[in-house]
Known about the structure:
- The protein is an all-beta fold.
- The chain has strands at about 5, 10-15, 20-25, 35-40, 45-50, 60, 70-75, 80-85, 90-100, 115, 120-124.
Amino acid sequence: QVQLVESGGGLVQAGGSLRLSCAASERTFRNYVMGWFRQAPGKEREFVATISWSGGITYYGDSVKGRFTISRDNAKNTVYLQMNSLKPEDTAVYFCAAAARGTIVVVTTRYDYWGQGTQVTVTS
């Protein structure tokens, strides 16, 4: 069982930056594909970014491409999401997730473990 704990959310003005972290409890963290998703009130959970187990392959949703960067530190069992040039439409609860299979994973149903989420609010 992998436990994931997100942190780093908060309130920020449009154009600002935040860095989210997701710490995993499992020493085999390096074996998992990691992803970030977000969910705004009344909307479905949306894919944000994913990273391969080695960190060598990343993939982003169209709405965040060029503004967000996903990275991981396998020695620290942590995945990060650097968010720059934030917009009010980025406001959501952000979740990290771990998938035991695949290279990069964009579909929610293929993720095996989820964190509880961290709120990001961007004001105009």
